Amino acid sequence: MINYKEQIAKQIGSLVEMPDNEIEKFIEIPNNTENGDYAFPCFKLSKTLKKSPQIIAQELKEKIQIDTEIFNKIEVVGGYVNFFINTNSLTKQVLQEIDQKREKYGAEEQKNKNIIVEYSSPNIAKEFHIGHLRTTVIGSAFYKVYKFLGYNTIGINHLGDYGTQFGKMIEGYKRWGTEYNLEENPIEELTKIYIRINDLCKKDENVLELCRENFKKLEDGDTYCVELWNKFKDLSLKEFYKTYDLLGVKFDSLTGEAFYQDKTQEVIDILEKNGKLVESQGAKIVDLEDKGMPPCIICKSNGSSIYATRDLAAILYRARTYDFDKCIYVVAYEQNLHFKQIFEVAKYLDLDKKYTDGLKHVAYGMTRVPSGRMSTREGNVVKVNDLLNEAIQRVLEIINEKNPDMEDKEENAKKIGIGAVIFNNLCSTLIKDQIFDWNTVLNFNGETGPYIQYIYVRTKSVLEKAGYIPEFSHIDISKLQDKESQKIIKILYQFNNILNQVIEKNETSFLARFLIELAQSYSNFYNENKILGEDKEIQDARIYLTYAVGNVLKIGAGLLGIEMPNKM
Ligand code: ARG
453 — phi, psi (to 5°)? Predict the structure, then answer.
């Protein structure tokens, strides 16, 4: 498709002393379409050219040679040169591309670039909390978008399956394991054991020492300890997969922290060799004072590795195994400092700059229920599976009330309920904290997942009523010149660009907003225009546009992890 900004930059670039890509950055999209589709502001040129922006704009306008296939006209308003695109040719390009690429519209060719997306990463034997839900759906969306854009993408669930707490879990299980029903409610029961042993440790120093020994044994591969640890892990994963299956989330690798346990020595050796390790109260640390950060502990005084060391080992391993161009970590902003530290220390691991430059923490904000924050330690825990099932249940109630005879009720309720929760996690700027409120999340008329699904279903029912989708080659493009159709075409045109912004800015909300805008525009189009029963040529063109909108809504929602119901 024509890249309009590039075209404008090329024209202007041949007339002024400024590189095309610089010019491209200045090109704006006017809020008011009366000022054209693109506008080039001349203020920046005013200084070097020693002329007023208005005069420069006027001169540019006179010199620019417009290709009428691309632009209908150019106008000067104030210090701007405004470009009006040839809407017929735009419409044709967009719909033709959709016709050719179908469910691949917006996708790109396979690239020779490896992207790691690390997401979810819950902790074994602990509750999968609402923060984990967020990383899971955000990470999964990035994973899908990267893949769609042709990147070789690797999704990693960096399980929190290691740490001194397992020494405690083992001790607790050894003492009271038979009292708890682990098969039924593994995480809840394991948490109870953990709390109980923790209390005991606080009272009895000897028990704490036993726990420490267990952990050491675990590190050294003791059969009993490893067996128990495996049991905790398997039980936990079975629980986690209930959530993943509901969400439709997948991973390419489940290599968690434990996997790196025997790989931390190399990290220590390299840092030692590079003279970066300093002794501090028996521990080994990397001083980061000159970077304005507290030191990064690499090795505790008892010799065991910590969370950060395993992350550093993971960076080495991932660089070698996947030769990544980018490795993004979708983790809550509470860990900002951790990632700043390990990314800094990673620079001392003799890695190619390509790798250290490719590390990126994509931080996201917390989810609050109206009554406060949701976390494991505080009482106010909301279990993710319960939340997802409640979403489905609530939708089912709405359906039973409004459309009790609907076919595939359960299946649709699941898609709508889950889709609503997913969308809610992706639609606002990721770094912002968010409030989880059922009334907002499930509002079918709001800026929500269900709204997008609702409009999608509407496009489906229009096509069903029509009974046919005309062939693109038979469409008279000039029948789509009305305001509402043109608005839709311009949005559709942006789709690939939006996907690229998602990965450049690490923001899923761009895609979420895009889908809302597309859905709203179709709704306007639908309200303002008769689709069926019009003159045949108009009808065909509008049916085709309807098909195009449905197609892109489905692709885009799919990339966010949202499935489309067949009825609503
Ligand atoms: N397991 C950690 C938690 O639940 C998150 C792990 C994040 N990823 C990492 N590479 N450190 O808080």
Answer: -65, -40
- Euclidean distance between CA atoms 73 and 63, whole angstroms: 13
Q: Which residues line ligand 1 (CB under 6 A)?
A: 118, 121-123, 158, 160, 311, 329, 331
Residue 259 Cα to ligand 1 midpoint, Å, equals 14
Instruction: Please report, to the nearest 10 degrees, the dihedral formed by the alpha carbons of residues 206, 214, 191, 203 taken in order.
Output: 10
Query: What is the SS3 assignment for 151?
Result: coil
Measured by CA distance, the residue closest to atom 3 of ligand 1 is: 122
Atom of ligand 1 nearest to the CA of 338: 11
Going from the Cα of 564 to the center of ligand 1, the distance in angstroms, rounded, reads 31
What CA–CA distances, in Å, run from 559 to 148, 224, 476?
Answer: 8, 44, 31
Burial class (CB in 10 A: 0-12, 13-18, 19+), 17: exposed
How many angstroms does the Cα of residue 119 sit away from the middle of ligand 1? 8
Using CA atoms in the order 324, 292, 332, 328, what is the torsion angle rounded to 10 degrees?
A: -10
To the nearest 10 degrees (0 to 180), the angle between helices 165-176 and 223-247 is: 100
pLDDT digits (tens), the chain, 568 positions: 899 999 999 999 999 988 999 999 999 999 988 899 999 999 989 988 899 999 999 999 999 988 999 999 999 999 999 999 999 999 999 999 999 999 999 999 999 999 999 999 999 999 898 999 999 999 999 999 999 999 999 999 999 999 888 999 999 999 999 999 988 889 999 999 999 999 999 999 999 999 999 998 998 899 999 999 999 999 999 999 999 999 999 999 999 999 998 999 999 999 999 999 999 999 999 999 999 999 999 998 877 788 999 999 999 999 999 999 999 999 999 999 999 999 999 999 999 999 999 999 999 999 887 655 444 444 456 789 999 999 999 999 999 999 999 999 999 999 999 999 999 999 999 999 998 899 999 999 999 999 999 999 999 999 999 999 999 999 999 999 999 999 999 999 999 999 999 999 999 999 999 999 999 999 999 999 999 987 999 999 999 999 999 999 999 999 999 999 999 8
Angle formed at CA 145 by CA 7 and CA 567, multiple of 5 degrees: 110
Strands of 343-388 (E only): list them. Answer: 359-364, 367-369, 372-373
Asked if 283 contacts 294 with a C-beta cutoff of 8 angstroms, the reply is no
Please choose from 263, 331, 374 the residue to mutate so as to test ligand 1's pocket, defined by most ligand atoms within 8 A of CB. Answer: 331
- Edge-first strand order for the sheet with 434-435 is 372-373, 367-369, 434-435
The pTM of this model reads 0.94
Point out the ligand 1 atom lying closest to the alpha carbon of residue 314: 10
Q: What ligand 1 atom has the least distance to the C-alpha of 342?
A: 11
Atom nearest to 307 CA in ligand 1 = 11
